[in-house]
Amino acid sequence: MKTPKPWSTKDILVASGGTLVCGDGNRSFAGISIDSRNIEGNELFIAIAGTAHDGHQYIKDVLNQGILGVLTENNKREMLPLTEMIKGNVVCVAVENTTRALGDMASFHRGASKASVVGITGSNGKTTTREMTATVVMERFQTLTSQKNYNNDIGLPLSLLRLDPTHELAILELGMNHPGEIAYLTRICLPHIGVITNIGPVHLEGVGSMEGVMRAKGELLEHMAPGGTAVLNGDDQWLRRLAGLTDRKVVFFGHTGDALVRAESIRETEQGISFSLRLPTGTRTVRLGIPGRFMVSNALAAATVGYLKGLSGESIQSGLEKFRSVEGRMHIKKTPSGITVINDAYNANPVSVKAAIETLISLKGTQRGILVLGDMLELGPDAEAMHEVIGSISAASGPGRLYVTGDFSSAVAGGAIANGLAADKIFIGTKDEICIDLSNRLEPDDWVLVKGSRGMTMETVVRWLENWGTK
Fold it and tell me: Residue 456 burial by CB count (10 A; 0-12/13-18/19+): exposed, middle or buried?
């Protein structure tokens, strides 16, 4: 990762609140890295003390690569090769918490930028909305957007640190699984526009209830830049309620009459979705090359940001139509063996699973549809009941076969059987066992939907399906 403006040791000390342990206080660094495997040139290494890996264990490695600056935690000084560092005139800055220091440095860097920031969160669709929004505003502005799923206390700062003087806009994604996380991320990036796509039953283990989800997501509005604008889904009752609790200027998108940006005349085809985009400046016909009626809501959020940033209807339409699906999020692929795989394996919650099943139904036509579902995680005490509901929805879709894996697979199966799906059409097992059973049952022209929470790593099934029948 590179930062366009060199980091002086003085700026590092000011931004991080750290103290200089040793080294040349006049040295500057070309960039910042937290990964010892790909650190380059004259970069500062920040030793993140994570749950799986502790960057302090790799300080000797980066020093052997010629790195001359490290940022460490005060309580990890015994892990430092101080004699070697002093001898090599290595800059060492110590802080209380390196993850927090990374955020402080990103905030410092963001404060030096003239770019306008858009922060996007929500229970579903935030990554797709982020990418759609970036594609739209790139029609006019030099734009930075988050990489991959960089939406937490490490990923968001790393994205911000990529801001350079050419950037006019930054489109950033903010994730959470507990109260206070969105507030912290918002204070780092200080968005001028805050987008919330929807409120749904996600991360209930951390926030306790739908009310808790609303309040956690609403932290975006509370802590965004002064004079900022909230862009909210007007079709979501929880966001309607949140709008009444904030003193921010609120703009709605959706299907209701009071939405500033609306969609009408929605049509679904195998090629994607088309709809009439109603903007205050006029109406445009938009043809999205991606499936799923729910994608229209994501597109409306992106269009609203584009409108607020002064883009014409033509530019907004052009940007939306250039968007292509993100890997793992309603990504459709027809394999050489003739089956069609809907890869929606990146994450899952009750709302997104229901939407994915509805999309499968709308696309497969008369062909056989097969569901491969992993657990939905972090749902709290109601997790079993929510999985039973997904089983019922699965049964109502009339699948040729239902595959389930995870701790709540029996709950999904029970819900499906209760709603009339024959038990012999249901298979419970590991992902490997599911692939073995599929190998004996798949037929050309089958449509297979694969979905589950991130921790279920359902993409392994997707990879197997993509290669089925090719050997």
Answer: buried
Kindly calculate the radius of gyration of the chain based on its CA atoms and give it in whole angstroms. Answer: 24
d(CA 159, CA 127): 14
CATH of the domain spanning 7-96: 3.40.1390.10
Which of helix, strand or coil describes residue 280? coil
Name the residue type at position 428: I
Sign of CA dihedral 302, 202, 101, 224: positive
75: phi then psi, degrees, rounded to nearest 5:
-80, 5
| CATH architecture of the domain with residue range 331-467 | Alpha-Beta Complex (3.90)
pLDDT per residue rounded down to tens, the chain (471 residues): 444 679 999 999 999 999 999 999 999 999 999 999 999 889 999 999 988 889 999 999 999 999 999 999 999 989 999 999 999 999 999 999 999 999 999 999 999 999 999 999 999 999 999 999 999 999 999 999 987 789 999 999 999 999 999 999 999 999 998 999 999 999 999 999 999 999 998 888 889 999 999 999 999 999 999 999 999 999 999 999 999 999 999 999 999 999 999 999 999 876 789 999 999 999 999 999 988 899 999 999 999 999 999 999 999 999 999 998 877 788 899 999 999 999 999 899 999 999 999 999 999 999 999 999 999 999 999 999 999 999 999 999 999 999 999 999 999 999 999 999 999 999 999 999 999 999 999 999 999 999 999 999 999 999 999 999 775
Q: Domain limits of the chain?
A: 7-96, 113-322, 331-467
Burial of 8 (0-12, 13-18, 19+ CB in 10 A): middle
Q: H helices of 140-294, where?
A: 155-160, 181-189, 204-207, 210-223, 237-243
Whole-structure pTM value: 0.88
What is the fold of 113-322?
UDP-N-acetylmuramoyl-L-alanine:D-glutamate ligase (3.40.1190)
